Amino acid sequence: MEASREGQESIVPELEPRIFYNPRYEINELVKRGDMRKLMIKAAELHGHFCIGLAMGVKASMLALKELGVELPERDVTEHVRHELIAVVDNNLCFADGVQMIIGATLGNNSLVFRDMGKISLTLIDKKSKRAVRVTMIKPFTSPTIENEKFQELFRKVMVRREQVPKKEAEAFRSMMDRASLEVLSLPENEYFKVEKFEVEDVNDEAFKGPSVQWVKCAHCGGLVIESKAFKKEDQGKKYYCADCAGEKVYSVVGRKIDKISLSDIARLIRM
Ligand SMILES: [Zn+2]
Ligand SMILES: [Zn+2]
Question: Which end of the chain has fewer surrounding CB within 10 Å, N or C?
Fold first, then answer.
């Protein structure tokens, strides 16, 4: 891979060719070095804050890669998006962002599968070797800050009961959470996660590709829509309509659940 890039120039002058050709180069290097602290900082760039859940995702990702014995793939210039590693996350908590940042499997590159079961587990499938590993958290992280009584009390209020707390308490909780998330980075993964390895049958490549990008224009709002997702109204001269203009509800991930909702349902949810 490196050799084929020699002499190549980046068309983004501010980026070195090795970074332009693999924008995830820095993360790949941090994973190779096992630099948990810098990986956590990277993950927080995506997630928006430091927290224990994010650390769970970062650590689960690192353990899964280690157990699978694979390195993060480099970008393959012959493919639009690299799909070598498929990540399956079983929750849409902070955990999922740790996985997206470290593994590079995201909603947009179609190598992320989300199963709405609220379980702290990650399954990593290596399409090349047809091997997979599943890491499941079996006990909550512990650390000096996590064991602090005040932290436990605020955790129950803010995270379990989802209560609104006074600003001072919220700030105190935030700063303890920041500290705890860094403390847990050095915990031994194998004590907190169960590892299961298995072989996979041939992976159906088609299933993991995004929908084919064939644009059609919604006859009502003018928005561009992927043809396979548009609604065709035969009675109105075979025109295409987006789901909203066709009055159809669509599957959506909304915080606590996956539901079939319309655009007006979203407005209703926001008012709630
Ligand atoms: Zn978080
Ligand atoms: Zn429309």
Answer: C
